[in-house]
Amino acid sequence: MGLDFNYDLDTYVQFFKDKWLFLVIALIVLFIVVRIVKTVVKWLIVVAILAGVVFYSGHSLEELKNLGSELGTKVADSVKQEAISAMAGEAQEATFTTNSDGTFTVKTKNLQLDGTPGEKEVKVNFRGTPLGTWKIDAAIQSLIDQAKKNV
Fold it and tell me: What is the DSSP string of 67-80?
């Protein structure tokens, strides 16, 4: 099932033109429910009406879940790209520390890499937030080598 939320303004204008009566009725019903009903049931009715509007407009909950997943992936990729840029910009300030357990730590103003000599991966923290374990690529290896030179 394809998902394309890259609609332009014309798509939304057309949707509102086609479905204006349905949307007005849904808003009136929501207003009445919120004003009259005083219990928790009120919010269940509101949620049901909103879900009906979402389904009627052509977007299912599965599509919305996929949108959330895509957004999360884009944010993660953006943070990763920012971390890689920081590696290049902060290499001159990097410090290399050999820990007592045989691991090493490379620190800059915004980054911290923790790894074991000979391994192909390091744990990456960017501005105090763990970004997971990354494979050592050219950018990471360059930062490690520069940090060793800075000692």
Answer: HHHHHHHHHHHHHH
The amino acid occupying position 56 is: Y
Question: Measuring CA to CA, which residue among 105, 109, 81, 104 is closest to residue 93?
Answer: 109
Give the tens place of pLDDT for each residue, 76-133: 667 677 777 767 777 788 888 999 998 999 998 888 899 998 889 999 888 888 888 8
For 7-42, give the DSSP string. Answer: --HHHHHHHHHHHHHHHHHHHHHHHHHHHH--SHHH
The pairing of strands 129-135 and 95-98 is: unpaired
The length of the chain, given as a count of residues? 151
Rounded to two decimals, what is the model's pTM? 0.49
DSSP reduced 3-state for 113: strand
What is the identity of the amino acid at 15? F
Q: 97-100: long-range contacts at Cβ-Cβ below 8 A with a sequence spacing of 24 or more?
A: none
